[in-house]
Amino acid sequence: MNDTTPTTPTATPTPATQTPATPAAGTPVAGAGAAAAPTAGTRSAGAGAAAPTAAAAPTRRGLRPIPRRGVRPIPRRLRPAARGVRPARRRGGRGLVGSGQWAAWGFLAPVTVYLAVFYAYPLYKNVDLSLRDYTVLSFVRGGAPFTGLSNYRAVFADATFAPALWHTVLFTAGSLLFQFTIGLGLAVFFRQHFPLSATLRALFLVPWLLPLIVSASTWSWMLNTDSGIVNYTLHLLGVGPVDWLTSPHWSLISVTVANIWIGIPFNLVLLYSGLQAIPHTLYEAAALDGAGAWQRFRRVTLPLLRPVSAITLLLGLIYTLKVFDIIWIMTRGGPVDSSTTLATWSYRLGFGNLLPAFGPGAAVGNLLVIIALAFGLLYIHAQHTAQATHP
Q: pTM for the whole thing?
């Protein structure tokens, strides 16, 4: 009997297949660049025009993916609504817009009232006076008859109109010429800084700061025929006395000289401020180019000072046209109307007689307003032309 011994089957070793470990998320796999299959979110070979999918490519650990397109939205916590800021609402036409309009009207109201009370109403009354036949009684009670342009015709036909107009032209032109010339010379002089220049410049403002009645009275005393300092000085020089205020040949010259003395500081201040705005480097460049003092003044100062000069002459013209108190205090328009201007004639017609002629006096005043307005419009037209030529 054969003993059968059970045999235990042994497993034949087979070569173990090594399964590659799955890399952790976010860890790059070495050497698998070309063999790895394209995953979602990556472009496969030959699909260059394919649109990217919504999923983002694997990124490094700790870094957030950057959005590929679009603008990153503002966090809610930074929005104005989250801060408690509410947009402005209009309730029945009110709100911020309405309050801004009321504020603008509030700032504009005082200027409007001032212009209406002190400019528009007096001008209206002056025109009304010139178109009616006012007497003292009708001026108080009203009811003056309307006469149209009869007062203007009476003014043009008066024998005093032509001499008064000519004296106004001479007085205005002479005053403007010497005031501007002397003021410009002083402005150029004070532009060169020297010791006590500011003090001396302030002293030149005294004639402008004094009341006109004081200045006119002082000039009346200085030009007095018997006791004036001017004739006393001429006496020391061997010259006989001159009737400055009582001679028809010298009265207009005397009041013109006094007005020039009063108006020089005004021109000095405006022209000096205009000179301060001219850069000093322009004068240095002109000097390097060989320009002398006169050439620098002619080629640099005068052209750049033209805007300031124009407004200075315009304001001086308007001021000189209405000068009344200096002439009235010194000569009262005489002798024999030799220093009468339109301003003094208008005053004498309206208030200088026992029987005032309010209508003709107002008509002469309106002529002065028209002359000043005409020169103002010419200035505005010249400014617009200059801006269009040299923008």
A: 0.72
